[in-house]
């Protein structure tokens, strides 16, 4: 339970009190909103649920382009994923446009970087991986992984949370990768165990989202810097490259924004060639709320700042 601070330097919030409730199941969250025992949620429901709730009296849905990024990360110490051709092949084997269109109902933008496309450091000239299963097959053959008698080249394990939308998306990716001979075994885990495993490097692949952290180009050092292996950062895949470390260092300390943007662009070009991660989509922000809650302005990072300006009728 949070109560407003009447002496806050920027002025007291309009809402006197906010009670946060932890409701692990998405269906239960939707039902709480439907029956009126909850007033608001942000980005915690599937697109289908949000669309259904928007049709009900007493409920409204606000949306805005966001910055939260869904991605798949590789373990660079794994003997299969250490091959750059394998990582590139998996990127070519992923039909991201179909995932966004059919599973997310168009409620996302294709991700071309860890940074959102409207970011000042984003470089639109960096080439992207399109959907090209034939090219994926060529790369896997070149990496020394031919199809076996059963049509399978190798198995990979993908660790995920138990979130329903993640389950649906990863099942679709598994189907896409199977078409190029890669069998993807899905390993959903309760989030505490999931986070512990990926921090220890106990994974081949995992999928997660960046929320808020990718609003600054320092995200590149935090995720790929050699000195940022957990617990010092989020380089969970144990990637090490002194040349790219130097490039990241120069970008991080540059005082001139344009110089910093060019340094980030050079890093993103190297990132693309090396295929350090597979980005999927940047989600649209959705806030489902009772109509008595007004003046909602959703921040692109999906945080709770919208409560500052919200009004309760």
How is this structure best described in words?
This protein is an alpha+beta fold and 313 residues long. It contains eleven helices and eleven strands. Strands 3, 4, 5, 6, 7, 8 and 9 form a seven-stranded mixed beta sheet that branches. Helix 6 links the parallel strand 6 and strand 7. Helix 3 packs antiparallel against helix 5 and helix 9 packs antiparallel against helix 10. The longest helix has 18 residues. The two termini are 20 Å apart.
**Low-confidence runs (pLDDT<50, min 5 residues)?**
none
Largest sheet: number of strands, sense, barrel closure: 7 strands, mixed
Write down the Rg: 21 Å
In quaternary terms, these chains amount to single chain
Structural class by sheet pairing and helices: alpha+beta
Helical content, roughly?
25-40%
Helix and strand succession?
A: EEHEHEHHEHEHEHEHHHEEHE
What would the principal axes of the Cα set say about the shape? Answer: globular
Question: How many β-strand stretches?
Answer: 11
Indicate the mean pLDDT. Answer: 88
Distance between the termini: 20 Å
Percentage beta strand: 15-25%
């Amino acid at each position: 339970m949070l109560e407003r601070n009447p002496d806050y330097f920027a002025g007291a919030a309009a809402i006197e009190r906010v009670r946060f409730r932890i409701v692990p199941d998405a269906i239960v969250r939707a039902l709480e909103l439907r029956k009126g025992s909850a007033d608001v949620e942000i980005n915690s429901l599937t697109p289908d649920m949000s669309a259904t709730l928007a049709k009900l009296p007493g409920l409204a849905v606000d949306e805005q382009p966001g910055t939260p990024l869904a991605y798949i990360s590789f373990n660079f110490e794994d003997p299969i994923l250490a091959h750059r051709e394998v990582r590139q092949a998996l990127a070519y084997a992923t039909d991201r446009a179909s995932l966004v269109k059919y599973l997310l109902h168009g409620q996302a933008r294709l991700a071309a970087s860890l940074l959102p496309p409207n970011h000042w450091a984003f470089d639109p000239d960096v080439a992207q991986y399109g959907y090209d299963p034939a090219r994926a097959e060529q790369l896997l053959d070149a990496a020394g992984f031919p199809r076996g008698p059963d049509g399978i080249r190798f198995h990979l394990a993908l660790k995920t949370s138990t979130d329903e939308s993640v389950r649906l998306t990863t099942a679709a990716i598994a189907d896409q990768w199977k078409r190029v001979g890669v069998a993807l075994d899905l390993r959903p885990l309760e989030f505490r165990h999931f986070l512990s495993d990926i921090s220890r490097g106990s994974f081949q692949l995992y999928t997660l989202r960046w929320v808020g952290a990718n609003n600054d180009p320092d995200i590149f050092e935090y995720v790929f810097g050699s000195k940022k292996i957990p617990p010092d950062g989020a380089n969970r895949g144990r990637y090490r490259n002194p040349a790219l470390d130097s490039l990241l260092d120069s970008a991080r300390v540059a005082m001139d924004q344009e110089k910093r943007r060019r340094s980030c662009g050079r890093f993103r070009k190297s990132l693309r060639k090396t295929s350090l991660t597979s980005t999927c989509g940047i989600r649209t922000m959705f806030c489902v709320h009772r109509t008595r809650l007004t003046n909602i302005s959703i921040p692109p990072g999906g945080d709770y700042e919208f409560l500052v300006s919200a009004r309760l009728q």
